[in-house]
Amino acid sequence: MQHMSSKRGKRARRSSAGQPLPDEMMTEIVLRLPAYSIVRFRAVSRSWAAMLSSPGFQDGYAAMADARRMSMSKFVFFAASPASPRGATAVYSCDVGPVRRITTTTTDLLFNIDRLRPGFLVVSSRPCHGLTLLADTRSFAYWVCNSSTGVFRPLPRRRCHDLSSAGLVFDDRTKEHKVVHLFCHVSRGGESEAMTMGCEVYTLCTPSRPWRPASGGIPGRLGGVVICALLYEGAATKVPPVYANGFLHWQLYPDKYLIKTSSLTRRRSRKRKWKRSGEE
Questions:
Q1: Which residue intervals define the domain F-box in the entry (predicted)?
Q2: pTM of the model as a whole
């Protein structure tokens, strides 16, 4: 009898040790893993692939990544690639510490982006759900990169415009990243000029899909506002639009503090007063 009870105890211990973790606990563990591990885990099973691709998990992972980013003592910066200083851009991470200057001993090379010339590089002001939009203002070429995973890809090329600006947004309804591109092209023929303005959108989740015109286009009453926004960015600030609270913001007329806003979810554009800090 004693022998049989000991065997039952061993079987009970083995069965209790082999019980899987609850789904909630597994999700909490996976949320803390680096992005490259998440990509690999999608191949474990169909249920894992569905869970890791679900909007709820992606929102939770983005929120946790933002919290980690706030507590981390590193930042990412872009510079000319040592291998091709004029023809490629290198992405580095750097420790934030009591150093007075950035040196090769305090930085780590993450990856290189070929054909992105650092002399004409414009970087979006802040990441959008982990992605950063890069632009070559000379060739009007755009890239999107994820500095955490080292993944980057060029967007379909656009024709050269006289004025151009783009911003990266995240559509909460479809859970997709989208690039919104404002442009103005002047056709000159003899003594006359024809000006063409437009707004187009590229969806990152469908790479085979081309750029498409924005729904509704640019309202006629905002034509002059759009031109001023593009002129001010190209000639003065060199700063791309800022994405905040579901809107892209372009700065206009610093003496009047105006903001041009565009929303994908609300399908509308407008301008509004931008008050100084401290004004009511």
A1: 15-64
A2: 0.64
